[in-house]
């Protein structure tokens, strides 16, 4: 196997793959790799949540103020760490435009909560409510009612459970064509034990390396028993990258129409209007 070739442009991968763009097939498969990476030497969102729950036991004014503050901090830190893992900055122009095109902009919140919601990681309305309660406690010097503190802690807990679930279910995405599909079927018939490499298309995936998560598009070109890998590493600000991240999360969030329209939007950036998806193949057919 030759050393991988790192390309500078996303479209270079697809030019090399030379897929039949009016016979495309989209496949999903659970990654098995953690999509989020967290520093081990810092306070964690779950630890802040535990502090909030402990504060709640006091029920007095001091405990309620601390409780809602720690609940908000746990949400704030979770979002911050998620965006850092994805290598996405809300200050980037492409990211700002991505948020503006999303319907979550109408739901309030700040740019980070809107981005997280736009990517399908978490709902923005509940988080926005918690921000409002905390601002009342910090800037208006109001003591939050016990009910608001409980709500903040429960929302933070639900967000973390949702975050863990989304991470486990995040999918790699393969873009192949009918030619590769037929070669794969033939390979399975002739090589049932899969001793030879399986023909595959262009794959969006991620891996943890050097204390951070790397996101990439990869295509392996097979020639005379050997293969050459072509890789594009995402920088974190490409519109195509944001669409693929969204698709990786939203495929399992009850709305496959959203997944399919997001993939088609990505393909339009690659091929313009001259493409057709023949089939979407899910690893857990409904």
Question: What order do the SSEs take from the amino end to the carboxyl end, as H and E?
Answer: EHEHHHHHHEHEEEHHE
Q: End-to-end distance, in Å? A: 38 Å
Number of helices: 10
Overall structural class, as computed from helix and strand content, comes to alpha/beta
- Number of strand segments: 7
Helix content percent band: 40-55%
Strand order of the largest sheet: 1-6-5-4-3-2-7
Shape: elongated
Oligomer: single chain
**In this structure, how is the largest beta sheet organized?**
7 strands, mixed
Q: Unreliable stretches, pLDDT < 50, 5 or more residues? A: 190-196
Mean pLDDT: 83
Strand content: 15-25%
- Structurally, how many domains make up the residues? 2
Gyration radius from CA atoms, angstroms: 22 Å
Question: What is the secondary structure topology, with strand pairs?
Answer:
Layout: E1 5-6, H1 10-17, E2 24-30, H2 45-56, H3 61-85, H4 93-100, H5 111-118, H6 124-139, H7 146-169, E3 171-177, H8 178-190, E4 202-209, E5 212-223, E6 226-233, H9 239-250, H10 256-271, E7 277-281
Parallel strand pairs: 1-6, 2-7
Antiparallel strand pairs: 2-3, 3-4, 4-5, 5-6
Helix pairs in contact: 2-3, 2-7, 3-6, 3-7, 4-5, 6-7, 9-10
Distinctive features:
286 residues; alpha/beta; seven-stranded mixed β-sheet; 7 strands; 17% strand; elongated; DUF2303 family protein
Kindly describe this structure.
With 286 residues, this protein is α/β, with parallel strands linked by helices. It has 2 domains: 5-35 and 170-281, no CATH class; 45-168. It has 10 helices and 7 strands. It has a 7-stranded mixed sheet with strand order 1-6-5-4-3-2-7. Helix 2 (45-56) runs antiparallel to helix 7 (146-169), helix 3 crosses helix 6 and helix 4 (93-100) crosses helix 5 (111-118). The protein is elongated and about 75 Å long. The protein starts with a strand and ends in a 5-residue tail after the last strand. Mean pLDDT is 83; it is low at 190-196.
């Amino acid at each position: 196997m030759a050393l991988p070739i790192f390309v500078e442009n996303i479209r270079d991968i697809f030019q090399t793959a030379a897929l039949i763009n009016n016979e495309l097939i989209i496949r999903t498969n659970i990654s098995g790799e953690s999509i989020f990476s967290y520093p081990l030497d810092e306070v964690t969102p779950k630890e802040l949540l535990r502090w909030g729950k402990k504060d709640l036991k006091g029920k007095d004014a001091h405990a309620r103020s601390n409780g809602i503050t720690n609940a908000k901090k746990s949400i704030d830190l979770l979002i911050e760490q998620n965006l850092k893992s994805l290598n996405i900055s809300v200050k980037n122009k492409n990211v700002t435009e991505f948020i503006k095109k999303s319907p979550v902009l109408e739901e309030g919140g700040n740019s980070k909560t809107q981005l997280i919601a736009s990517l399908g990681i978490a709902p923005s309305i509940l988080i926005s409510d918690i921000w409002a309660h905390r601002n009342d406690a910090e800037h208006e010097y109001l003591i939050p009612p016990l009910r608001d503190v409980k709500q903040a802690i429960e929302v933070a807990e639900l967000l973390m459970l949702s975050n863990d679930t989304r991470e486990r279910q995040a999918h790699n995405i393969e873009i192949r064509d009918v030619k590769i599909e037929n070669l794969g079927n033939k390979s399975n018939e002739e090589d049932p034990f899969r001793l030879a490499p399986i023909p595959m298309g262009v794959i969006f995936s991620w891996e943890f390396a050097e204390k951070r998560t790397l996101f990439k598009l990869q295509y392996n070109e097979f020639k005379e028993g050997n293969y050459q890998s072509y890789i594009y590493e995402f920088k974190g600000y490409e519109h195509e990258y944001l669409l693929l991240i969204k698709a990786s999360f939203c495929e399992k969030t009850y709305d496959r129409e959203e997944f399919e329209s997001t993939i088609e939007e990505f393909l339009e950036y690659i091929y313009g209007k001259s493409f057709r998806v023949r089939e979407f193949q899910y690893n857990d057919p409904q």
